[in-house]
């Protein structure tokens, strides 16, 4: 991530003189990013033998999950994110009372659980 941001900063003349502040900026950004809750969905096959996962930009595998946009509620965020990531409209499947929550460090994540055939 640092190399990517460095390349972007160097391409913008008005901010390239700030390159020495990049490590501190990235530390603060990562710290801020942990404060934003995320919402998504876990798709489990009817026989519980398969789950749907997506590959992230960093190469890791994850459930479809993302940060809430302004004006969204958690269910709307999950519906949007799943549609953006895998092209599925889950608006008629999601149930606000069927979910799991996790906390890793200071980051909260909520995932709706859906059984699909």
TrEMBL record:
State the Gene Ontology terms under molecular function.
hydrolase activity
Q: Does the keyword Hydrolase apply?
A: yes
What PROSITE patterns has UniProt attached to this entry?
NUDIX
Q: Which protein is depicted?
A: Nudix hydrolase domain-containing protein
Q: Does the keyword field hold Disulfide bond?
A: no
Q: Where is the Nudix hydrolase domain?
A: 34-117
Q: Gene3D superfamilies under this entry?
A: Dcp2, box A domain (1.10.10.1050), Nucleoside Triphosphate Pyrophosphohydrolase (3.90.79.10)
Q: Which UniProt keywords apply?
A: Hydrolase
